[in-house]
Amino acid sequence: MIRVTRKVEFSAAHFYHNPAFSAEENKRVFGKCANLHGHGHNYVLEVTVAGEPDPATGMVLDLKELKDILQREIVDRMDHRHLNHEVPELAGKIPTCENIAAVIWNLLEPRIKQGKLDRVRLYESPDLFADCTAESNGNVGFAGGRA
Amino acid sequence: MTTRLKLSLTRRYRFSASHRLHSAEFSEEENLRLYGKCSNPYGHGHNYVVEVTMGGPVDPATGMIANLGELDPFVEREVIEAFDQKYLNEEVPQFSAQVPTTENVCREIYRRLKPFPAARLERVRIEETSNNSFEFAG
């Protein structure tokens, strides 16, 4: 099996706020990220697709097609957007790296027709990233919708 | 169809330290043969990068596996304060009887971070230089 990874970047704003918390709790739990005006990041998304290369083309998938899927499903949806206000898939969720990675997985997974989505890695900064994969043995993280 | 997803969060930290690869069990010649210039008696240093990976679940109230407001000070206290700007052989007690190869440093950092109460430590990966890295997952 071969893993193919494509990288794409988008810049977006967000803040962390749980309406069930008091203002003090939001401040205590989320710190600076609770600033309701929001702040932004240059996100770097690495999408890995796994599969056997097609003997006729030598490719697991057509990278041009993956590039178009990433542009349409992720960049067009999230680039230069406010993730709390403008991305319906994140409505009601706190737009942490973990939750955004899971939303990105759910957006991409049904659209990858050649090979299989193997991993979504989302960098919020060079020193912080979340990985999302399909559950293999236990360790369930998140199941699509917020509890 | 709902795919059950597995999530992890990885944070990168840095410290700079010196070490010397030298084992009291070997003769000077054997140390030199085995460890080469890493056995220089005065030691040498690296800018280490430590990648700490924490596993799920994601807390629905915070959207987080681990709150960096808790993880950062924990790593700072348990690892960075103890290792940064230190001579590992002399100043980190675990390396008085153990050669501070980055394999051993990796395991020691894993041991120190394993008790983090709010999430499950999945993996520690250390870059000793941009060309060498070491991983320990327990």
Q: What's a quick, concise take on this entry?
A:
By secondary structure, chain A is α+β, with helices and mostly antiparallel strands.
Record the SSE blueprint.
The complex is a heterodimer of chains A (147) and B (138).
Chain A: E1 2-14, H1 23-30, E2 39-51, H2 63-78, E3 81-82, H3 83-86, H4 97-108, E4 116-125, E5 128-134
Parallel strand pairs in A: 1-3
Antiparallel strand pairs in A: 1-2, 2-4, 4-5
Chain B: E1 5-19, H1 28-35, E2 44-55, H2 68-83, E3 86-87, H3 88-91, H4 102-113, E4 120-127, E5 133-136
Parallel strand pairs in B: 1-3
Antiparallel strand pairs in B: 1-2, 2-4, 4-5
How many β-strand runs of chain B? 5
Which structural class do you get from the secondary structure elements of chain A?
alpha+beta
CATH class of one domain in chain A: Alpha Beta
CATH topology of chain B: Tetrahydropterin Synthase, Chain A
The total strand number of chain A stands at 5
| Name of the CATH architecture of one domain in chain A | 2-Layer Sandwich
Q: Could you give the order of the helices and strands of chain B?
A: EHEHEHHEE
Low-confidence stretches of chain A: 137-147
Q: Level of helix content of chain B?
A: 25-40%
Describe the protein's architecture and organization.
The complex is a heterodimer of chains A (147) and B (138). Chain A has 147 residues and is an alpha+beta fold. Chain A has a domain at 2-8 and 42-132: Tetrahydropterin Synthase, Chain A (2-Layer Sandwich), CATH 3.30.479.10. Chain A contains 4 helices and 5 strands, in the order βαβαβααββ. Chain A has helices spanning 23-30, 63-78, 83-86, 97-108; strands at 2-14, 39-51, 81-82, 116-125, 128-134. In chain A, strands 3-1-2-4-5 form a 5-stranded mixed β-sheet. The radius of gyration of chain A is 17 Å and the shape is elongated. The model of chain A is unreliable at 137-147 (pLDDT under 50). Chain B has a single domain (8-136), classed as Tetrahydropterin Synthase, Chain A (2-Layer Sandwich), CATH 3.30.479.10. Chain B has 138 residues and is of the alpha+beta class. Chain B has 4 helices and 5 strands. Chain B is 29% helix and 30% strand. In chain B, a hairpin with a 5-residue loop joins strand 4 (120-127) and strand 5 (133-136). The relative contact order of chain B is 0.21. Strand 5 (128-134) of chain A pairs antiparallel with strand 1 (5-19) of chain B.
